[in-house]
From TrEMBL:
Keyword Magnesium: yes
Top EC category: transferase
One annotated GO molecular function: molybdopterin molybdotransferase activity
Keywords on record: Magnesium, Metal-binding, Molybdenum, Molybdenum cofactor biosynthesis, Transferase
Keyword tRNA processing listed: no
Domain MoaB/Mog: 2-99
Domain of life: Bacteria
Alphabetized Gene3D superfamilies for the sequence: MoaB/Mog-like domain, MoeA, C-terminal, domain IV
Pathway: Cofactor biosynthesis; molybdopterin biosynthesis
Protein known as: Molybdopterin molybdenumtransferase
Length: 188
């Protein structure tokens, strides 16, 4: 059931989670799982007898994703920023929902391509960059960054063909470096 848009009030979030837990096999929310003044999902989950198993994954975009349960009902709290919500849904929520439905999600395939961009990042977290593929003069596939940066830039996903995955230990990528490419078609 769709419980619609719930106001950013602790009592409203608590009530919506309790209602959803009474009728669902899984609950998926977006927004309200970070640490802002209006982020009430974590506290509401605990107030309704639920508990978090994982919160704040070391990924970008999507750090404030939350995984837990209320009784026997799985809970997935996605970030509120549109790109972060989409990336965490594809990489975290979708495989879990498929598993709960009895399906066996296929292993996520990554394809080696050359970076057509430079990028620096913090160590210790995995990053996913929106990208498009082009073929260079030699026929090799090259991933180019697509759209503007930022987890709130939904338009950056509109023309992206896939995600470039940068592991936790990578701190910089230079043009020509090998990178792992995940086509969006493999995630859907």
């Amino acid at each position: 059931a769709d419980h619609g848009i719930v106001p950013d009030r602790a009592d409203a979030v608590r009530s919506a989670l309790a209602a959803a837990a009474a009728e669902a096999d899984a609950i998926v929310t977006s927004g309200g799982v970070s640490v802002g003044d209006e982020d009430h999902v974590k506290e509401a989950l605990e107030a309704t007898g639920g508990r978090l198993h994982h919160w704040r994954l070391a990924i970008k975009p999507g750090k404030p994703v939350a995984l837990g349960q209320i009784g026997g009902v799985a809970f997935l709290g996605l970030p509120g920023n549109p790109v972060a919500a989409m990336v965490t849904f594809l990489l975290v929520a979708r495989p879990l929902l498929l598993h709960l439905a009895g399906a066996e999600p296929l292993p996520l395939r990554r394809f080696p391509v050359a970076a057509g961009f430079g990028h620096g990042k913090k160590p210790g977290r995995r990053e996913f960059l929106r990208a498009v593929l082009e073929t260079d003069a030699s026929g090799a596939l090259v991933a180019h960054r697509h759209g503007r940066e930022g987890a709130g830039m939904l338009s950056s996903l509109a023309g992206a063909e896939g995600l470039v995955e940068l592991p936790e230990d990578v701190t910089a990528v230079a043009p020509g470096d090998p990178v792992a490419y995940i086509p969006l078609s493999a995630l859907i």
